[in-house]
Design a protein that fits this description.
5-stranded mixed sheet, 12 helices, binds adenosine-5'-triphosphate, binds fe (iii) ion, tRNA processing, KAE1/TsaD, acyltransferase
Length: 365
């Protein structure tokens, strides 16, 4: 069985072919990051246009690398939500054309389900396991009980941690810093933090008293913004120049975010263990998303998993960020489980009626 996966939910046009054992036959990806860095953020119509320009080539490259033609496919799997509506639309309409032309089953994919299941392609991980997704667009904790059986334990009430790190890095003008100019915001903060002293600033982790597993980053971001403004005054420099205390701020911000993420995750592990939702002796925490590549945050999470006798697993970096492989693999998982396979495109509109696997769970003490 071969599944073609297509991903266009945000700023990457990606495709891959994966077989039922998880072998990646071929993949291709086109990243729009460079264009969006120049405009200081993603402008949806620009992203849509770039997806349109690249989708045909990327899918063709993935098929050619796999040495197969569309008629060899068992199904086509495509991200249908969540994401930027304009971007999702490009992948979906392209896929539906292929589906019609080659008469293949179509498997709509929930982007977060795909991120969560990626670990099963690289490691032997059985259900249930806990997943923490931390990226530029998402922040959530969920218990994965089956291919399409998720219990959402917590999510960010405002922005995602990667988004916050990007904003702080921009505010600190790290793009002008000789050592970090080519790095993403989060990576630049991680790099600079190594040269700083986290104790020079005392940012408090958010939501210390909230009895749930939700996250929040925008309040912290405002406090950091104010601190930067104050420091600029003290150091007598203009906005846009690099503070001499930039490394200390980076270290303190990274430390505070790591504490926050680790504490919320700790709550989720204890919650699941107390209710026997996770294996007592061999529970697994999977951490994925661009922010998961941060080693300081990983160390904080390791302290939590060691203390709760859990195993911490992360997919390799290229599978942590958006890619076509995870979409194809999610298609394989759904095909094997006989879930969500559509045999004609009638009724599939721009936003197909598709059951979101994440169930909002009640808050707990
Ligand atoms: P989505 O949320 O839809 O998956 P995205 O493109 O925003 O999409 P990713 O590609 O997974 O997310 O990750 C990008 C984010 O990860 C950026 O916000 C970036 O700053 C952050 N990031 C990358 N490297 C690091 C790092 N070493 N430490 C912290 N954050 C990082
Ligand atoms: Fe993603």
């Amino acid at each position: 069985k071969l599944v073609l996966g297509i991903e266009t939910s945000c700023d990457d046009t990606a495709a891959a072919v994966v077989d039922e054992t998880g072998n990646v036959l071929g993949e291709a990806i086109h990243s729009q990051t460079e264009v969006h860095l120049k405009t200081g953020g993603i402008i949806p119509p620009v992203a849509q246009q770039l997806h349109r320009e690249n989708i045909q080539r990327i899918v063709q490259e993935a098929l050619s690398a796999s040495n197969i033609s569309p008629s060899d496919l068992s199904a086509i799997a495509t991200t249908v939500k969540p994401g930027l509506a304009l971007s999702l639309g490009v992948g979906l309409s392209f896929s539906l054309k292929l589906v019609d032309q080659f008469r293949k089953p179509f498997i709509p994919i929930h982007h977060m389900e795909a991120h969560a299941l990626t670990i099963r392609l690289t490691n032997k991980v059985e259900f249930p396991f806990l997943v923490l997704l931390i990226s530029g667009g998402h922040c959530l904790l969920a218990l994965v009980r089956g291919v399409s059986d998720f219990l959402l334990l917590g999510k960010s009430l405002d922005i995602a941690p990667g988004d916050m790190l990007d904003k702080v890095a921009r505010r600190l003008s790290l793009i002008k810093h000789p050592e970090c100019s080519a790095m993403s915001g989060g990576k630049a903060i991680e790099h600079l933090a190594k040269q700083g002293n986290k104790l020079h600033f005392d940012f408090r982790p958010p939501m210390q008293r909230a009895k749930n597993c939700d996250f929040s980053f925008s309040g912290l971001q405002h406090i950091v913004d104010k601190t930067i403004m104050q420091k600029e005054k003290e150091e007598g420099i203009e906005k846009g120049q690099i503070l001499s205390s930039a490394a200390d701020i980076a270290a303190a911000v990274q430390h505070t975010i790591a504490c926050h993420i680790a504490k919320r995750t700790h709550r989720a592990i204890l919650f699941c263990k107390q209710r026997d939702l996770l294996c007592q002796s061999n529970a697994v925490l999977v951490v994925s998303g661009g922010v998961a590549s941060n080693l300081y945050i990983r160390e904080a999470l390791e302290i939590v998993t060691d203390a709760t006798r859990c195993t911490l697993l992360c997919p390799p970096p290229r599978l942590c960020t958006d890619n076509g492989i995870m979409i194809a693999w999610n298609g394989v998982e759904r095909l094997r489980a006989g879930l969500g396979i559509l045999h004609n495109t009638e009724g599939i509109r721009y936003e197909p009626k598709y059951v979101v696997p994440f169930i909002i769970f009640m808050q707990f003490a």
